[in-house]
Structure formats: structure tokens, C-alpha cells
# Entry
Amino acid sequence: MVVVGETSDLVTEIHDVISKLSSRNGLRSNSGAPQETVVSLADINRRSARDAVIHAFKAILGRLPDHQGYCTYVSALRRGVLSRSQLLEALLRSPEGRGRRVRILYDLTEAEMVAVDHSDVERSYYTYNEFEIEDFDEFLRFAYRAILKRDCDSGGIESFRNAIATGATREQVLRSLLDSDEHKARTETVVISGVTPVEAMFKEMFARLDRMTTLVLDLEMQLFVAKNG
# Structure
């Protein structure tokens, strides 16, 4: 039987292999004096949290993020405790980033200074602690985008506000969205560890593991070629 811990280890290994391959390819392709890399904050600001972290790592550190760094930064962006510019500065000032020639263009227009969307509509797996957002309206907006992959309508906001006022919990709000016909009609449903029933979570996880098998085999082949090529 595959357990959650083993799945997490597998994801970690996949991220680490990708990161190593990226670094190896970068070392092979870059020769001579390093050239300056320019990173546009406006470009980072237009990306989802997931893509922003991946792009920032590749642009500033020349590699894909490791699993721990990826999870830490994506979570911080989604929860609003870290801005896009702070992400870039953190990587640039890190021990790994200090020796690299990278310049950040702080070229945001007034329109782009509007609060960034912290959701990542491409994801389908979350943990309950990612929804621990203090402001209820922000929590609800994130829940809608995470589960239904769309913005929350005014009727939904009012309905759930009333539910909370009469004693409903945030976990019940998430369960209501997960159990909705709109969510169940999606090709790939969302799993929230700590909210989704265990049986349903494992059923979905096994289906995804089947799809991951092809990816793992492909990564193993790339690693073999990288080591022996």
C-alpha cells in the first residue's frame, strides 16, 4: 500500500532529480564569462504562485527549485506573507544567488500594483493548512479558485458568510465546495488533505500515481543519459 509519506518522498525525489538535471544542463551550456540576467517584476507579477517560483529560481539561480524551497515559497505567496518582489530579493541575496549576475527590473505599472492573485488554478492537491487565511473573504476567494477554478460570485460570498455566522466551520465550507455538483463534474477533482475523506483521497491519489509512473520512468532515463552521456 502507498501511504501519504511515501507519496511525499516520491514527489521530493522527482523535484530533486529535475533540479539536478537542470543544474547539470546549465553547467554544460554556459561557458566563458557569465552574462547578466534581467528579471522583470512585471513578468513575475503576471504568473501564478507556482509559475512565479519556478521562473524566479530558473532566472536567478539557474535551476529549478528543490522540493522544500518550492513548497515554502509557493505557500508564502499564496497566503500573502511574501510579495513577488520579496521572492526575487530573497533568492538574489541567498548564498547561492550572491555570485550570480542578475538585475531585477522594478517596472510595475500602476495597474500591475494591484494585489496579486495568490491562487494556482493548475493544482489539484492541497493541504488544509494552506487554507488557514485569517480574512474570511480572502479564504473564500482562495477556496473557490482552488476547488472550482473560478472567482467567487457575490451570491456565494453572502451564502457562506451567513453559514459562518450561524455556526458553520471553515472545514464545512471546504467540504461543501468539494461536494458540489460543479466540482464533481470536473475531469480531475481536487483533494485537500485533512478535509477530503480518506477513501476518496486514496482513490484519487492512486489514479495520479499511475500517471506519475510514466514521468518517473522518463526522469530515470534522463538521469541515466545525464550520468553516462
Notes: The radius of gyration is 20 Å. The CA atoms of residues 124 and 145 lie 11 Å apart. Residues 12-17+35-110 form one domain. The beta strands are 37-40, 102-105, 125-127, 191-193.
